[in-house]
Amino acid sequence: MKPVLVIRHARTEGAGFFSTFLDQRNIPWCMICIDKGDALPSGISDYSGLVMMGGPMSVNDQLPWIEQELGLIRQSISLDLPVLGHCLGGQLISKALGAKVIANPVKEIGWGEVNVAPDQLSLDLFGVTNFESFHWHGETFELPNEAKHLLSSHYCQNQAYQLGKVLAFQCHIEMTEEMVQAWCAGGLDEILASKDSPAVQQATEIQRHLKVRVANLNKVATHVYSQWIKSLNQAR
Question: Residue 154: helix, strand or coil by DSSP?
Fold first, then answer.
């Protein structure tokens, strides 16, 4: 099988539990690190799928790699390859498909319940009707044309959608304990500056019952990723 291409945009926002999931199933993958200056490939033909992780930047920033990454997303979709985006990754997918990325009404940081759309496709994808996900964003995406809305939260309507073999998330289902701890340490100033938002938790609350919270989220992520990998290109 050709490897899954994972694009990392920030040092602390790597593949997380998604890499564990792939390794446990002996699915090959490789990672390009934008934060280290790695060059993006000119094409996607050497890969079985495309995955984008999160990052603190905005898709609306004038950064030199954004247009090339949008091109890879469009190329993947045109070749009917599975595409998966987490937070910034989901916003990049939306922009690639012509949808806007705008400011969310409030910033979301920490744990918060998301509700699964009440239809069989959504329930089959997640295996639950709601779950506690992890959030760290100030912007959100609009839905591309013909996209199927999957998830919502009290403070953000568009938490996930599906369009063919494309899955885009605003929330973070890829979290590990180590990632949560690192984000809390590195983002303490942002947490404190955003303390008036009703959707922002303080670092002590974010890390309370962390092992159980992450384990529960990993179960949901396993269900989602298990569906997503069914579309991977098996060609060698």
Answer: coil
Instruction: List the structure tokens of 119.
Output: 């239809």
The identity of residue 129, as a single letter, is: T
pLDDT for 234 equals: 62
Task: Report d(CA 233, CA 129) in Å as an integer.
Answer: 30
Q: Considering the domain boundaries, does residue 171 fall inside one?
A: yes
Q: Please choose, from the candidates 104, 122, 90, the residue with its C-alpha nearest in 3D space to the C-alpha of residue 200.
A: 104
Looking at residue 195, its pLDDT comes to 87
One-letter identity of residue 133: S
Residue found under tokens 């979301």: 108
Q: Which domain holds residue 121?
A: 4-231
Domain for residue 53, yes or no? Answer: yes
Identify whether 236 is part of a domain. no
Q: What CATH number did the domain enclosing 65 receive?
A: 3.40.50.880
Q: Which residue has the tokens 């369009």?
A: 163
Neighbour-count burial of 16, counting CB atoms closer than 10 A to its CB (0-12 exposed, 13-18 middle, 19+ buried): buried
Give which of 193, 147, 197 is closest to 170, Cα–Cα: 147
**Do residues 218 and 211 make contact, with C-beta atoms less than 8 angstroms apart?**
no
Q: What pLDDT is stored for residue 236 in this prediction? A: 46
